Amino acid sequence: MAWVNAIIQGILTGGLYALFACGLSLMFGVMKVVNLAYGDLAVVAGYIGVGVIAATHMPFLWAIPIVVVIMAALGYVLQRTLLQAALRRGELITLIVTFGLSIVIENGLLQFFSANGKGLGVNQSFVTASFSIGSQITIAWLDVIIFALAVVVLLGLQYYLSSTKYGRLIRAVADDREAAQLSGADYRHVFGIAAAIAFGTVALAGMAYGTTTVLYPTTGTDTILLIAFATVVIGGLGSLWGTLLGGIVLGVAQQVGAQINISYELLAGYLIFLVVLIVRPQGLTARRIQS
Amino acid sequence: MSEPVNGARHSNASPILEVRDLVVHHGQLRALSGISLQVFPGEVYAIIGANGAGKSTLLRTIAGLHHPTGGSIVYDGKDVTGLRPEKRATAGIGMVPEGRRLFPSLTLEENLKVGATFARKGPWTFDRVYEMFPWMKDRREQRTAQMSGGEQQSVAIGRALVANPRVLMLDELSLGLAPVIVQRIYGMLPQILESGVTVLLVEQDVSQALRVATHLQCLLEGHTTLEGRPADVTAEQVEAAYFGMAGSAEAERALHASPDEGSES
To answer: Is any Cβ of chain B less than 8 angstroms from the Cβ of A134?
Structure first.
């Protein structure tokens, strides 16, 4: 039963990982930006959440859409300014620029908010509420909610990309920027929208993670970014549902590893990551972003 | 389709598209050295020339995909030289790019929908495109990556038409297609002209260009070597302009033989 429990917990963790990864995957799939500041942006979202709640005393759930909108706007602006300028100079330049951005964000958070962790201050009963299956399996409602949120986000993204005007343009621009321009589409604006969506999912990821743990200025790179990268690589670059599959594989590997020996949790995750890189470097679902 | 058209050139009608002394560099390389042209409404203006003559560069610069180092582009009486490509497209300069450049992960219909997203008002609807290419209707859910070269070219034309351009630029329609397919695709030209669209095309296949053009311009290494109505130029003149010399065997072949090196891809 302990193994079944590990697998169930792993699958549920995979939802959070998919939430971490889908924006990263979208930005890479559409504009070939490898955003190394991605994890830090999730932390920034969490800090904004803390700030919004502290300033307005609104309930946690109400703060979520506000943080999503703030981050989406930030994503659009950042894409149209810094990232677009970097893209114009070459795709590799975006790697350097987002790496720099990551350092700036981390040190900015340290400077202004100290190295102490920040919690979102979610009601403890909400965090610890759980239900049991049999005598040995206990599942936290929060994990189920985050998993469901990930599925809803992926479904929403899929619907948006396949069935809306701008979703179609995002796919068209990802295919062929110049041809899209000849059809009258300003690809920079379309990139901005894609970045806004990616940052919106980052905000959800940061807020979701902030409910389960305390966020530190360095959480972005040493946890979130690594997990997001591993998830995207395992699942397949540019594939939305691949991020859920990759997240689940990573989550299950970690939980099963931890079941063997608690110190193997991270090791097992990276072993799976390496195995996929060797055996199937294109990822488990190698597809482009498409309907 | 020809008679009223040639009249436009000599009456006091104003050109819909005018290029003045266009100079374009690719890095250090000078691709166009002072090209000028005037396209009048209703014309089929053909630009011919060998590989590397600068034909595609000229169309791409008119579309806004290259920045000229000198000269200007005037569309509908307005200078559009500094305008971004998407603004030119929505103003009514359409283009079917070389190599078709469809969106491979989109279906046929989605490709058309992208083309229609920022469309001007005009006669071209999906239904009219499906009327011109009846096979499309049953295959609109199919991804274009799985289609033949001729079918892809037709989709590319459809995608450009549903934007309702006033000037449609066609870049090397015949490239990589079997002669019979090329004939069929050029067979659509009268319908496009009837709808009021002016056509500016680039073609390596000279005999094909001569068949459809109402006005002709030949480029050689970025310079204009010949310009006029097809009826007013002799085969020898075209030959000399195309190769920069007269009487080569290659020129003979390019002019008189039907193209047979193309293949259906």
So the answer is: no
